[in-house]
Each structure stands twice: as C-alpha cells, then as structure tokens.
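User: Could you check the structure of this?
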Amino acid sequence: MKNILSEAVEFSAENISDFKFNDRNERQVYSVGTYCSIIELSQAFFTLVDTKNFSGSLSVYRTFLENYVDLKNLKIHSLYENELAFQNLESMKNSLKEARKGNFYLKSLVKHADEKIPSLRAEIKQLKTIDEQPLSISKKFQLAEMKEEYLGFYPTLCAEAHSSVSAILERHIEVNKLDDSLEISLFKARSERDFDFYLCNMAQQLLDAGVLLCGILGDSRVSKYLLERDSIKAKVEKYT
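Assistant: Sure, the predicted structure tokens are below.
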C-alpha cells in the first residue's frame, strides 16, 4: 500500500510548481501553503512507514489531516481565511501577554508587548469570523463535513500524538507468552499491514487536496487531478 501513497506524493510534487496564485489574495496564499504542507507531511508519513519507524507516524497523519480539513474549508467556506488569521493573531497576542507576565521562554517578546497587543486586538476586531473565539478542531471538522472522520479515527491519531496510556503500551510494552510477564520493547517490530488504512486514505486525500486547490485557484488542470485521484482510488479498491 505504501507504493500507492508514494505514487500520489510523486504526482503531487511534480505538479505543484505549475500552480499560479495571486500573492495579494490571502485565501489563495493560505491554500497554496496548506497544500504544500499536505504534500510534505505525506512524504514524511511514507518515510516513517517505509523505514519501519512507526512511532510518531500517526502524529504526522494527524497534522496532515488537520491541514486537509483547513484546505477543504478554504474551498467550501468564503472568508475561512479569516478563521486562520484569527487563530494566528490570537496565538501571537497570547504569547505577548504571557511574556508580559514574565515567562522565561518568551522574555525576548516583552519589549514588544505594550505596543503589539493593542494593534493585534484591533486587527482581530476587524476580522469577520464565525465565533468570538478561534474555531475548535471539532468545529473545523464539522464545517468540512468530516464529522465521521473526527469521531472515527481522529481520536486514534490524537492518542498517538498525546502519548496516551494505550499508545505507550502499544509502542513499548510486550507480554511474554511464556510467563505472562511484561517486557520493554524499543522500536517494536510492527507490520506495515497495520498502516494500510492510513496509507490508502492519505493517498486519496492527497490527490483530493490537489482537486480542492485547483478549485480555489480556478486552475484548468482539475481534470488531470481528478483522473489521478480516480486511478489511485481504483488501485486502493483492488487491494482492499
């Protein structure tokens, strides 16, 4: 299955440079940047699975999926770029406020806090957004019409990213079948077959991301991306 993802990554990387976008259009700029991240994260996931470094791979998939959700929302919802800007400005404002409280790791920002915080608040106030707070991840999935993904396998990706008890035990503890004792396992041998679902799903979403970007930019090559997406889908269905 990893070869299916590899094919999708290769196609996407070969065609990315041909996209043209308006560098004064925030929606287009954010969309192109998000799509580039989607390609690189797909390559990172493939590399981890291909080299059998499975720990961390689902964390990469989680980041990939969240980028895919943002790209889909940029396509579906007008002014969704404001939601991304809102999230970024709020993060900057909170860092400056924390710096002003004396956080050691943010001390280089203190000198900018008094000047920047009011201007950030003004920028935030001007944005037309859905809520008064940045969108939660569940709301983003809902807007992207991906509630089943959010309630289905996204929790597994989060468990890996947050090193939940289940993830820790799965990665590093094995049961000795002779006496039922627990043993430490570092770089536990796992089957690539365990990742077939993610490999296939990511390959299809990666090609669909290209279709979404074509729609956002009005790129005439959308039929080319649709053809490649259908080809990948056919290969997935053949092996599943």
